[in-house]
Amino acid sequence: MPVRRLDPILIDRIAAGEVIERPSAAVKELVENALDADARRIDVAVEDGGRKLIRVIDDGRGMDENDLTLAVERHATSKIPEGDLTKIATLGFRGEALPSIAAVSDLTIDTRAGGAPHGVSIRVEAGHMRGLRASSWPQGTRIEARDLFAATPARLKFLRTDRAETTAVADVVKRLAIAHPGVRFSLAANGGALIDYDACKDDERGRSRRMAQALGQEFPDNAIPIDATREGFRLSGLAGLPTFNRANAQMQYVYVNGRPVRDKLFAGAIRGAYLDFLSHDRHPVAVLFLECDYPEVDVNVHPAKAEVRFRDPGLVRGLVVGALKQALAGARHRGSDSNAAKALRMIGARTSWRPAQPANWDLRQSPNAPGGFEESPQARFVPGPPVADARAQEAPAAACDLEAPLGAARAQIHETYIIAQTRDGLVIVDQHAAHERLVYEKLKQQRETSGVERQILLIPIVVELDRARMEALAPALTELAELGLIVEAFGSGAVLVRETPAIFKGIDVPRLVADIADIRAEEGDARALSRRLDHVLATCACHQSVRAGRRLAPQEMNALLREMETTPGSGQCNHGRPTYVELKLADIEKLFGRK
Known about the structure:
The protein has 19 helices and 25 strands. By secondary structure, the chain is of the alpha+beta class. The chain folds into 3 domains: about 10-85 and about 95-195, Heat Shock Protein 90, CATH 3.30.565.10; about 215-330, Ribosomal Protein S5, domain 2; about 330-350 and about 385-595, MutL, C-terminal domain, regulatory subdomain (Ribosomal Protein S8, Chain: A, domain 1, 2-Layer Sandwich), CATH 3.30.1370. β3 and β4 (about 120-125) form a beta hairpin. The longest helix is centred in the last third of the chain and has 20 residues, at about 430-450. The radius of gyration is 31 Å and the shape is globular.
């Protein structure tokens, strides 16, 4: 078959497949254009998940007749005035959005530039331009894309349900809205309102308010601020407490110079920072903004601009991990307020009924009174193991303990939970989970201060590796030695292990070395051994901590509370579960109708 030139319309449809994968991709491109036009209000509407209609209206700068004619042609843009791809300061820059959408839909644009006597309108149907005409549209732009993918029906088969596509559109609008708090956003689907975010001030407080609008007030209430700089990079935003977590990573929002991105570098960095605080099946919630000079990042590596590439990715990863870890350590014992809210909802659900109390209640007249109460009251009670140890009540609580964040221990129930009294409420502590965290942090500190103890192998172990893993492992031998693993090159396809960490008793050394080489090849550093050590330390901490079922003296309980207050990460155990729940007295009184 001879080689021939493709039809221009077919070329546009093929190119559109890279940029416009689904309706939400079209919405993303159109909203980004509105933001680049300095719009202060953006209204989005979709029908049938975007298949039937996508409408985006903004009050931005608008376009004149010449600009509008060029805007629907491929590779025509106003966003690279000097033609320098290393200094892209706008969300869009490729000049592909409008022509790509026009190639697979019936596109109509009404626009008017500031100061123009009238607006102008254009229609492009499946890539065919229908000409310009005058319009009475006010300043700004309205873009309607109808019958998306009608010209390429095969693409329709790959779309999901209308509900799923609408959810994807809402996620796109939400992500862009979080990065631009000064703009009012609205989204309607099939005539019903889904999103309506009022404009906020473009400062830290306004950014926090926009996060509350998009993610709920629960997120800012259970998050810690992030603000760190390193060699020209600045990271800011909010990171959720470890106890405020989710089953997936959908609530992680990352922005690079205001551009929303989904990049493996950030996903891995966030995961690594929370590695000590969450189990493998839970994910943190975070909204992070990274700002840097434009030449430091390449945004022209993905057709949909969803990924970026940094000149120094190691620096960026180190900044993210370091900033998050420092913030989490600074949170100390703080846990998620949502745990208390859940507890109150559970209690409220069980106490929602309120039987009427008799006027003159008498135990002897109660149907639940023990038989023979008049003769021998105590004889009828069946003795059993104590469920509450109230020895801490024998002495008055110290004022300094009552003023402490976790209060003064007053009782131990079921030999598992410590009940502490604060000035304005009470705290319930899981003694095993709390002490497990304390022991784990002590073990880590010992490892960092005095180093990892090593043991010399009686017979060195030879581990065979392929060439790729050998090359990945070779630059990390010095760092591995600092972590207690002495590895030497042993020919062209193997390494010799002479010493291992003393804590690794009975470890499968060949498997350990192979796993480290695999992770280093993937992540580019020696964090593999550090992670394995942390896992072993966490296991040791679990076995060495105060077990559930052990009765504690009042002094022990108070000492545990005071240590929790000064230990980083003590608000959750090594598996991400909360170590305590705090209930405010005002909330408890509401449960009993006292307020």
